[in-house]
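SAMPLE LOG
Freezer: B-3
Tube label: C17
Construct: single chain, 453 aa
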Amino acid sequence: MVRKKKITLSTTQIILLSFLVTILLGSVLLALPISSADGKAVPYLDALFTATTSTCVTGLVTLPTVSTWSVFGQIIILLLIQIGGLGLVTIMSGLMILLNRKMGIGDRMLIQDAFNLNTMSGLTQFVKNVLFGTLIIEGIGAFLYMLVFIPEFGIRGIWISVFNSVSAFCNAGIDIIAENSLCNYATNPLINIVTSALIILGGLGYIVWWDVIRVFKSRSLKNRKIFRHLTLHSKIAITVTAGLIFVGAVLIFAFEYANPLTIGNMSLFDKIQASFFQSITTRTAGFAALPQENLTNASAAVSVILMMIGGSPVGTAGGMKTVTIAVLVCSAFATIRNKNGATLFGRRISEESIKKAVAVVVMFLAICTASCVLLMATSDASAIDAVYETVSATATAGLSRNFTATLNTVGKLIIIVTMYFGRVGPISLAVALGSKNESQNVVSEPTENISIG
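STRUCTURE (predicted):
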């Protein structure tokens, strides 16, 4: 009797499949007539595209969200955004905790891989903190949004506020306000500040939250040297995030200052806040306060770079991540200066971290390049539009130069696959699809130097 070989999945493969199953289930629900605003079923490919962009918290849409979907459809989209932002593993773990079910070693390994954590200790409390913290921040964001949206939209303003708050915190960039996203609110300080705060908090990552709270609790407020006592991860994430936002805003302000199609006709204050919002939203958030197709080529290039870098690890943002880029840049400068090892803030960066950073960047660029070439080969797209679209999809940024709605069938499929790969993470994809670890081999290959550069 032949024994059937039992198929076992790694934790990474389970995470990949959880996103895929969520997307497929969401697409079926969105393809139902009840999900459409006019009661007629939306073509399945568009439903699949919407389910993917929602679950992958990207924000690219082939159909305008505000006018295409019914309240039921919008609820499905919001649930997909929340699941995509937190991860199905996190939500299921939260339900287990709520039902007082003990998490086994397999459940803990799933959570560890889902958040890319270095330890399995304190995972139950970590999940509780993530869910509770998310609920609190999204609730505050929704309340502040209501101050603007209820006077403007009446009772519907409550639903708009809740939807926008969840979407902003999860860095999804999908809204139900207007077909031109937040362009009508480009000069509204409250909307700009609330949306920016939600984007930044979601993009910084949960590890940074708890680290900052830990330091504030442990240090006397009389001692102002809070930053010194943060972990290296938090220092890098906060520093790089702040630097990218400021530098990005300055460059966009300079490049768009006289552009009448964007900020050229605004007051100085409005130009500044619009520039900062553009710099922040390109960090994988996807809300557009300025028409992206009207940006100068220089600003578009800056936006592409910011989208590629994205947010920080263990958060809701995508991209190659701030810490990844910081590690690579630091390693490169250490090599140029012929230093033995890379250091940041007085701490040596491990070789393992550098290797992971290289792997993430290589996989990200490989996915983005392949997607861009295929999109240009199968559609009538200019180089800047194709690059903008594919970088946005890979980094789950969600900004488009008004190109997504013009995609043909093949183009939609290309972007769907790109968004999925971009969300599950290049390194997770490589690990899940890879073979056994090379370290298991008994015989190691001989070493030989080669010329680089």
